[in-house]
Amino acid sequence: MKKNMSLIFLLLISGNLFAQISMVSKKFFLDSLNREATPENYSYTRVITNYSQKSVRYVVTDFYKNGRKKMTGTTLDRDVLKKDGEFIYYYKNGSKESVINYSEDHKSGKEVNWYENQSKKSDKQHFWDPKTKKSQTLILNFWDENKNQTVIDGNGEYEDKNESVTEKGAIKNGLKQGVWQGNDNVLKITFTNNYDQGILVSGIRIDENNVKTSYSSLNEKQTGKRLEKKK
Description:
The protein is mainly beta. It has a domain at 154-231. It has one helix at residues 2-24, and strands at 26-30, 44-48, 58-64, 69-75, 85-90, 96-103, 106-114, 120-129, 134-143, 149-152, 155-161, 165-172, 175-184, 189-196, 199-206, 211-215, 225-229. It is globular. Residues 7-23 and 224-231 have low confidence and may be disordered.
């Protein structure tokens, strides 16, 4: 009888602890576009550690399907990701990809990036002005995949690649300068942008049907003026 009572007591305690943990943390299933998904159809999961508590910041951690960390940091909103503070990003194999600092969901401060083999990729510095709502990024150093440093102290040639976009061009005093060329595999376009001290002056994109579209700002890039069909 005493053994049965002890077992029931332990089960009650375990159940209460599980309920408390479930209340403190909340798990989301998300797709590749950061939208909520189902447990049967998701790309990664997100856990808000102190979800049930009222707090200025909430600890957020994303996990790949293999159980390894994808990202970790703090958010100002427990239901909507608003990054604030240091965020660490990881490749699927567990190696570190980036360390980026944020202020009110804007990159602000130092950023360091690595290749998957852990060789250094780049050093960047971000500036965010909450009053003017303007931001600026300086590319300070860059190494290619062969460990050749092509940007030194904010000057040189830079090439950036991710899962969908590739672009390359000159860096002067930390800012994009002159003609930059690239392509977007998702949108199926190629583009040529012209920068002056980091500011986009003009650009042309060509879609998969060889239709040219011009723009003179980042806002116009998606809905620019259509030009003649490329010969």
